[in-house]
Design a protein that fits this description.
Length: 378
């Protein structure tokens, strides 16, 4: 197997521009995640809600997906993350790549984790589980994403288990950037036996730590599938080779779901992932008026904030107001609260952090240019 047989001849001509379809996919994923947790609140409280019924009958039953669209939004976010990260890695140095990912993830993660920790200690529920009082050690573990590896586990910001997997993937991409540019098919191919080995080893250690590490092997294939979508779309990997490697990762994920015990999110997890992958393939190159609209572009920029804060914004309100007000009204109030919180976090945390790293990089480039000019004159 050689680079010649795996690469497409038009490799240099495609995939260098902005992918508007990814904005649309992020919006769909954010809606799915919020909808899943919205309907889950009613299920946890043994209550009926017309939206839950409509989702089950109109979407879940027709497409044979997980109940309440469970895992669909997460799967779509992970696949899209694989596409995005591979796309940007093409033009970033390894250190620059990791630095930008840290600035993208950490400031907002820390702010929302502190908010969730405060709410939990005030007696509010911010996930499916109602946590007891948390100490500073629990806060620190949440800030550094090790709260799911400790015993007993502490949810804090419950959705951040996916960030653990993404961080491992980011490190893998950074390490393999030189190979990814020269032989782009090698990193995704090599990831399959690596994930398989991790799963075999951790399967013999039925502890929280072993299970947490095993999740890396279970969910990294989802991100790698997104990576292959990006490589095929950009013309760097032949569609046949990309499909073959992606199929291996999909089968690995199916095997994990059936025997590994790492993906206990419903009986239709593989089918739900397949639907997310097909939707990504279909929409990644979308460039119509909807995907290019200012609404979709702006919403897309706020999806990380929405992802992190929506549970902390919605669940305390639902627990407090549902016994006293009309359910539909309370749902709307919760959604508005989540949108307002996400907007504030985007403007007050994400945007300033992004400006800081951009200014720092401009000064770094200016310093390098000045150093080169000085050496040339000398």
């Amino acid at each position: 197997m050689t680079a010649t047989t795996l690469a497409r001849p038009e490799a240099a001509a495609q995939g260098t521009g902005y992918l508007h379809g990814l904005d649309l996919l992020r919006v769909v994923a954010s809606c799915a995640v919020v909808l899943t947790h919205l309907t889950a609140w009613f299920a946890l409280n043994d209550r009926e809600f017309w939206l839950s019924t409509a989702v089950e009958q109109g979407v879940v039953d027709r497409l044979h997906l997980n109940p309440r669209l469970s895992f669909f939004g997460v799967a779509l976010f992970l696949v899209v993350s694989g596409v995005v990260v591979t796309h940007v890695a093409n033009r970033e140095r390894p250190v620059q790549f990791l630095r930008r990912r840290v600035v993208r993830l950490v400031p907002l993660l820390w702010v929302v984790t502190v908010i969730a920790w405060i709410l939990i200690n005030l007696g509010f529920r911010v996930s499916s589980a109602r946590e007891g009082d948390l100490d500073l050690g629990d806060l620190v573990s949440g800030l550094f994403l090790v709260n799911f590896l400790q015993t007993p586990q502490v949810a804090l910001v419950a959705v951040t288990w996916t960030l653990q997997v993404q961080v491992v993937f980011y490190c893998y991409v950074a390490l393999t950037i030189p190979v990814l540019r020269k032989w782009p098919w090698i990193p995704p191919l090599a990831a399959a036996p690596a994930c398989f080995t991790v799963l075999l080893i951790t399967n013999h250690f039925p502890t929280s730590l072993g299970h947490g590490i095993g999740q890396f092997g279970a969910y990294l294939p989802v991100l790698v599938i997104g990576q292959l979508i990006s490589l095929v779309h950009s013309g760097k990997v032949h569609p046949v080779a990309g499909t073959a490697i992606a199929s291996a990762h999909f089968l690995l994920f199916v095997w994990t779901d059936k025997v590994g015990g790492y993906t206990e999110q419903g009986d239709a997890v593989p089918r739900t992932l397949l639907f997310a992958v097909l939707l990504t393939v279909l929409l990644v190159a979308a460039s119509g008026p909807v995907s290019r609209s200012a609404l979709i572009r702006g919403w897309s920029k706020r999806t990380y904030a929405i992802y992190l804060i929506h549970l902390s914004a919605m669940y305390p309100l639902y627990d407090t107001l549902m016994p006293h007000l009309d359910p539909t009204l309370v749902v709307v109030v919760g959604l508005v609260a989540a949108a307002v919180a996400a907007e504030l976090l985007h403007r007050l945390v994400e945007m300033p952090a992004n400006r800081v790293i951009r200014r720092w990089e401009r000064r770094e480039r200016t310093g390098e240019a000045g150093s080169i000019t000085g050496r040339t004159r000398t």
